[in-house]
Amino acid sequence: MAISSTAACRRLIASAAVLALAVAGLAGDGHGQATQPVTFIVVNNLFSTPGYVAAENGYWAKQGLNVNVKLTSSGRAVVQAVQAGDAQFGHAAFSTTIASARASGNLLKGVMAYYNAADYIAKAGGRAIIGRKDRGIDAGNPQSMEAKKIAYLTGSTNEVYLREWFRKNKLDIAKSQLVSVPIENMPITITQGLVDAAAPWEPYTAQAIRELGPNAVVVSRGAAGLVADIIGVVANEDWIKKNYDFIEKFATGIAEATLFVRQHPKQSADIATRFLDGLNIADATDGIK
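User: That's the sequence. What structure does it adopt?
Assistant: Structure tokens below.
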């Protein structure tokens, strides 16, 4: 997942690319063996693209795994599903989700980071703040965001991104009205004028900008220094201890997929449209580059 201002997805990881090359030849291809069922629950965004690609291109099948990629709308839902045993693996932001989960007694642990290259580890590539020009929002004047009605997702990394942006610009976020909205609903919420601004992630950032047209104001997109963005696979700590061989197979498949996303962003965007209902191919391509 690349990290330019639009970029959630291309430079997905130097480390995962190396891992893919290193371990692909070590694990069995699963040919002729009964496949092991596993559920991988992911948030419905482009950060999950390696999961879509691994399933679509058969990388997990080569490892003898039958992986069901299940979508949900937030990292909080991922944590709950893994804790309840409804999924063996989840996808989450290591920098925020794991800390909050463990603080509440959930023994969530990172299995493999696939979006963590050192050159953008402090950036939040798929996160943004988008405003409406007709509501007086000006990208060159941060203070124009004060006292505005802003859509965000409570408890998400995007909330951290939004609050840190206000703090960095020495603005009082308490003067604004924050409204929790599912990320996938943010484009229609802002285009219909129900809010003045929104803090989405990809591909919904690209969708909001496209649908707002000349009325779109990119207040912040993929800015550095607001939140560390290390995203990858998570699982329950106790389950991990008993399933190292299983985890190696899963990690091998997603590492191979990560390398594919890095090398073939346009094809990866097309694959993502088959997992995210209603995803516009142009928005997916814009997010993965």
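Residues 1-32 have pLDDT under 50 and may be disordered.
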